[in-house]
Write a structure and sequence with these properties.
heterotrimer, A alpha+beta, B mainly alpha, C alpha/beta, B: mainly alpha, MetI-like fold, 12 helices, C: alpha/beta, Rossmann fold, 6-stranded mixed sheet, 20 helices, 20 strands, 35% helix, 26% strand
């Protein structure tokens, strides 16, 4: 076209938009991907910040609340408390005439044929449900006593597991571990894969042949099985698990980076850099690596869900993180075992798990479309 | 062609050798052994056991013995299944795993390719969205969730199908495990097919076919489909190897006596020989299917010639 | 335009637009065209003028986001808005097309015989066997050697020219009324281009079909077309008979296009100018390794026994078809790839210099590439790209100094210095080539090897780049080696020409001597093809 006539009408301050910025703009336009991003952010906040707002810790056991269903009502409910109070009354050898719960406090009126010893309030405190019981008034020469105290009521919106632990907090903890394993293992595989692939691709020739042959051999090792062996033999700590998964997952990354590097090596701008006299290392740093970033980022969004799934598979086999720590995978496999008696144990972690993987998928697709537009 | 196959088979020998070597030493350098039980055995018994299984010999000697035996098809005794040697165990379990895997592969390929093609042809339509959503679920929901859910619905609530086991081997027993096994792979095939089909539909030669007034059926099936299937065929190798050698998860959930469970059981119990046996089994499957896929690829794409 | 023959395709108010995330883009803005029986209509324009999209729109071949409105009547039948099924009765039978990219327009998975037969079977309802017989005749007709054997070949087994012949055979299979040829020769070597055009001309005479020729190359149009429509930015700016347009162009745009044939000559340097770069017995071998497992690698000799002396201030043009070894020779002279022979740069013998020994010399010996899209790293700003050489060769410069040099270099190549903060993808092809030239010139080199620097550009931009290069040469006393397959550009740029074929020099001499009186048949073919005699 008439190109010299239309030198871009740019004032000296104008900054061009880099490809990355353009990709960001395209990405923001993609609603599904943006929704995925927001979802992921919310889940991350839920998992990492949530525990600070919960009164329970992940390993706190509530023996009185084993495997109870999800509910927004506080536990124990009024009728359970009534029963508990009646039990207390029987043990204290008094008759319960009146009982009411209001919020966190209860009032009870007990009568007896003999005057009641005020020390019998300790029977109240002995029950799990009641605390700080004190006598309010004594009537009828001590034969009627009004007592007041605090009720220990707990909220379990997600219910509890078969050990009586709060599922809500456990799902938060599981999220922390699953997300952390997913991210860290992907970074490990990214690190190994990029270095290995770029070296192999850039040096080329015999070195490339040998390095890729090794990758092929590792491919024919049954790979899930390799993880199992490594975890079984080297222990089940959190760090080992993501190191092991990362060490197994880098093969694809190495192949992708190598392919990219081979393609980039043939591009004329690398030839131009050689003609300018740049050294190999300068070319790799200034030209090769920045240009492999797109496909690598996209691939990471594929690896993260894969790793989370793999970790959950290990948990299913009983090889994941050790209790009382947990991950979504561990929670799900526990839930799958109790699917008939306590379906919520499966449903809640599964919802978070699937929503996370779904969001990662959309983000990955969005990134691919944004970073690798066909319509150049 | 025959020369190509022979050359490839010959090149598999060093690969297998390296696989065996890596696995052998990896396992032996890890702490623990097959007889380190929770309650320690009396030293005399321990010594006896070690001698019986030649575990008291130097490592390189054990390695050479293993290699020598493996070449003749003797993969040694299993340490945990005392009644059988490894070859017998695999021989018994493999037919179950392979039958299940074969049907699952069939379902995954046929279902996935059809779904992916339909989605690609109706790109960005409701059908496309539905197929992609379902396949995303297929990829994201682990099969140890799918398995129990299927059992709950079809075996327990509806009582249509058996909950597990092999029974008399009739197809009713296979339906649920096949679905659980095939679903994730079906989803992968659907996504792959959709992607490559969209790409294929945008190529210049498809434009040519349209410009020459060829009917849609011919454009899609004869010209776009064949090219689009190439990446699908490449994925066939790892997928077939994984499905046919059994899945630990599905076999555990549906109590199927296949070889899939041996991977995990062997590893957990440090049953060295069983582990080695399964490693070799999987490696052979991977190598064979890579070869099969390369041959298929050559048949589909005249640009790739094996001579 | 008196007494033209019957009009068989009438286009009225045709519009094509594309929906993009940035809004609707109008590619064709309501144009009128007429195609007369047995005549050739050339639709001429530079890239992006909408000439191809017009035809794609009529044929129902637009991309998914494209939409065509208006009217295109073929013998009275409206084609715009016709459902695919009805359109398929016309496409491939009455109106056929050949495309620019012979490499990708054929399905790589089927034999050419099968591909030619398919439309015959479909439109005539004959059996595949009968169609194959016709395919054989057609291959003979379009001049494919050994048609009996070639009919079972796959596209990748044919050369680019042969594939284009196959496309033509396919187009003729159903005796079409109209043949649309969309840049049919652009992707081919010059000598092949002429053959393909001759073939089309002969076939038109024999079968009497109309041809719609879409091209950016006015040289082709002059000898080929009856009527010409000039398009610019989606509109027809001028139309008339070929004779009228070439004799009396009305609009400035057409005049500019006509003038765009590279002009000017370069006078040779003084005879006693010192020799600045010399290569003796240059030979380059490529090892084709057949893969890890297959033994035995074969060696391909890309350049053999070439001698070349570049004097100060001289421009040597190297011409030849693709695969003649001209680019390889250029890189060998710069010691960028392993090559045997003796090399001198000025007084220094650089025959045995390795990469690190060459590095300080790189600033004196620069290279500009063909593809302005590929030669600029897409993730760095223009400023970073053009100062990269300074970063290596003058590391002592401060950031501000580098920036000053960048501004000066951009001004010198006629770009706004503000461009240095922008990224390559924001520039047109011509602008990118200027950036690539600035990157070489900022180092103040003595020798620049220009590898097809104008081949990817439109004609009018080519002329500007050529003038820029000549100005820079005069200003800084540069010596050029100018590699190109385009003889008209070489003629305008160089004072000495080397003709290469299969890695060897077949002829060399002063530019005028070569162009006026070529000795070798090969050179004559090249010249004949380039200047459309």
């Amino acid at each position: 076209m008439t190109d010299i006539l239309q030198v871009p009408a740019a004032s000296p301050e104008t900054k061009g938009r880099s490809l990355f910025q353009l990709a960001l703009i395209r990405f923001r336009r993609n609603r599904a991907a943006m929704a995925g991003c927001i979802m992921l952010l919310l889940i991350a906040i839920f998992s990492f910040v949530g525990p600070f707002f919960s009164p329970h810790s992940y390993d706190q056991v509530f023996p009185s609340y084993v495997t109870i269903g999800p509910s927004l009502e506080p536990r124990p409910d009024a009728s359970t408390l009534q029963e508990a109070m009646e039990g207390v009354a029987t043990r204290a050898r008094v008759t319960l005439t009146e009982f009411a719960v209001e919020g966190e406090t209860f009032t009870a009126t007990v009568t007896s044929e003999q005057p009641i010893d005020p020390r019998s309030t300790r029977y109240f405190d002995r029950a799990n449900e009641f605390e700080n019981t004190s006598v309010v008034v004594t009537e009828d020469d001590g034969r009627t006593m009004k007592v007041q105290g605090l009720v220990d009521r707990e909220y379990f919106p997600f219910g509890t597991d078969s050990n009586g632990r709060d599922l809500l907090v456990r799902v938060m903890l599981g999220g922390q571990i699953s997300l952390a394993v997913g991210l860290l293992a992907s970074l490990v595989s990214l690190g190994i894969g990029v270095v290995y692939g770029a070296t192999s691709g850039y040096i080329g020739g015999r070195v490339d042949n040998v390095m890729m042959r090794l990758v092929e051999i590792l491919y024919s090792l049954p790979f899930v099985f390799l993880v199992v062996v490594l975890v079984v033999f080297f222990g089940r700590s959190f760090i080992l698990i993501f190191l092991v998964i990362g060490a197994v997952e880098w093969l694809d990354m190495a192949r992708i980076v190598r392919g990219q590097t081979l393609a980039l090596k043939r591009r004329e701008f690398v030839g131009a850099a050689q003609a300018l006299g740049l050294t190999d290392w300068q070319i790799i740093r200034r030209h090769i690596i920045p240009n492999t970033i797109g496909p690598v980022i996209v691939f990471v969004t594929v690896v993260v869900p894969k790793v989370i799934l793999l970790e959950s598979f290990l948990s299913f086999l009983g090889l994941g993180v050790q209790a009382p720590l947990t991950s979504w995978g561990a929670l799900i496999s526990e839930g799958a075992n109790n699917i008939q008696s306590a379906p919520w144990l499966l449903i809640f972690p599964a919802i978070f798990f699937v929503v996370t993987l779904f969001s990662l998928n959309f983000v990955g697709d969005g990134l691919r479309d944004a970073l690798d537009p066909k319509d150049r | 062609m025959i020369a190509f196959i022979l050359r490839r088979l010959a090149s598999a020998v060093p690969t297998l050798f390296i696989v065996v070597t890596i696995s052998f030493f990896l396992m032996r350098f890890a702490p623990g052994g097959p007889f380190n039980l929770e309650r320690p055995l009396p030293p005399a018994t321990m010594e006896n056991l070690m001698r019986t299984y030649h575990l008291d010999q130097p490592l390189w000697r054990q390695y050479m013995t293993y290699l020598g035996n493996a070449v003749t098809g003797d993969f040694g005794p299993s340490y945990i299944y005392h009644d059988n040697n490894v070859a017998q165990l695999i021989g018994k379990g493999l037919p179950y795993s392979m039958e299940l895997g074969f049907y699952a592969l069939l379902l995954a390929v046929i279902g996935g390719v059809i779904a992916g093609t339909v989605a690609a042809l109706k790109q960005n339509s409701l059908i496309d969205f539905a197929v992609m959503s379902v396949s995303t679920i297929g990829v994201t929901v682990p099969n140890f969730v799918v398995g129990p859910v299927l059992t709950l619905i079809f075996a327990i609530m509806l009582s249509w199908l058996p909950a597990g086991g092999w029974g008399d081997g009739s197809f009713r027993f296979l339906i649920l495990p096949i679905i659980a096994l095939a679903l994730p792979q079906l989803a992968v095939f659907a996504r792959l097919t959709r992607g490559s089909m969209i790409e294929a539909l945008n190529t210049d030669h498809i434009r040519t076919a349209k410009a020459y007034g060829l009917p849609v059926r011919s454009v899609v099936i004869t010209h776009a489909m064949r090219g689009a299937l190439l990446p699908v065929v490449s994925y066939l190798a790892p997928c077939a190897a994984a499905l046919l050698t059994g899945s630990a998860v599905v076999e555990t959930i549906f109590t199927i006596p296949g070889v899939g469970r041996y991977f995990v059981l062997g590893a957990i119990n440090r049953d060295y020989t069983l582990v080695m046996g399964t490693v070799i089994l999987v490696a052979i499957f991977v190598i064979v299917f890579n070869l099969v896929v390369d041959i298929l690829y050559g048949l589909l794409d005249p640009r790739v010639r094996h001579d | 335009m008196a007494d033209r023959k019957e009009t068989i395709l009438t286009v009225r108010g045709l519009k094509v637009d594309f929906t993009t995330p940035d809004g609707t883009v109008e590619a064709v803005k309501g144009i009128d065209l007429d195609v007369h029986a047995g005549e050739t209509l050339a639709v001429v324009g530079e890239s992006g003028s909408g000439k191809s999209q017009t035809m794609m729109g009529i044929m129902g071949l637009l991309a998914k986001n494209g939409r065509v409105t208006g009217s295109a009547r073929y013998r009275g039948e409206e084609l715009v808005g016709l459902p695919a099924k009805a359109l398929n009765r016309v496409r491939g039978s009455k109106i056929t097309m050949i495309f620019q990219e012979p490499m990708t327009s054929l399905d790589p998975l089927y034999t050419i015989g099968r591909q030619i037969s398919e439309p015959i079977v479909h439109h005539r309802g004959v059996t595949l066997k009968e169609a194959k017989k016709r395919a054989f005749e057609l291959l003979e007709l379009v001049g494919i050697p050994e048609p009996a054997r070639r009919i079972d070949s796959y596209p990748h087994e044919l050369s680019g020219g042969q594939r284009q012949r196959v496309m033509i055979a396919m187009a003729l299979a159903n005796d079409p009324d109209i043949l649309i040829a969309d840049e049919p020769t652009t992707a081919l070597d010059v000598t092949i281009q002429a053959q393909i055009l001759d073939l089309l001309k002969t076939l038109q005479k024999r079968f009497g079909m109309s041809i719609v020729l879409i091209t950016h190359d006015l040289g082709i149009v002059k000898h080929f077309a009856d009527l010409v429509a000039v398009m610019r930015r989606g509109e027809v700016v001028e139309h008339g008979t070929a004779a009228e347009i070439f004799a009396r162009p009305k609009t400035d745009y057409t005049k500019m296009l006509l003038a765009a044939e590279p002009s000017g000559r370069k006078s040779p340097p003084a005879d006693d100018a010192p020799i600045i770069l010399e290569g003796r017995d240059v030979a380059v071998d490529y090892t084709l390794s057949p893969g890890f497992l297959r033994g035995g690698s074969s060696v391909f000799r890309a350049v053999e026994g070439v001698n070349l002396r570049l004097r100060h201030g001289q421009t040597i043009g190297i011409v030849g078809e693709s695969g003649s070894g001209k680019s390889t020779l250029g890189r060998a002279l710069l010691r960028l790839l392993p090559a045997s022979g003796h090399y001198r740069f000025g007084a220094t013998d650089i025959s045995n210099f390795d990469r690190s020994a060459m590095r300080p010399l790189r600033r004196e010996l620069q290279l500009v590439f063909q593809d302005p899209y590929g030669s600029l790293s897409p993730r760095r700003t223009v400023g970073e790209i053009i100062t990269e050489g300074l970063y290596v060769h003058e590391p002592e410069l401060s950031r501000a100094d580098r920036d000053r040099r960048a501004v000066a270099a951009l001004k010198e190549v006629g770009l706004d210095p503000a461009s240095r903060n922008r990224y390559p993808h924001e520039f047109s092809g011509g602008q990118r080539q200027r950036i690539a030239i600035a990157r070489a010139m900022i180092l103040k080199p003595k020798v620049v090897i220009l590898d097809e620097p104008t081949s990817a550009l439109d004609r009018s931009v080519q002329q500007q780049v050529i003038e820029l290069l000549r100005d820079l040469q005069a200003k800084h006393g540069l010596s050029y080696i100018f590699i190109s397959h385009d003889l008209s550009v070489v003629r305008a740029m160089s004072d000495y020409v080397i003709v290469m074929k299969n890695g060897r020099i077949v002829e060399e001499g002063d530019t005028d001597a070569i162009f006026e009186a070529p000795k070798e048949a090969y050179t004559r073919t090249l010249i004949g093809a380039a200047f459309n005699v």
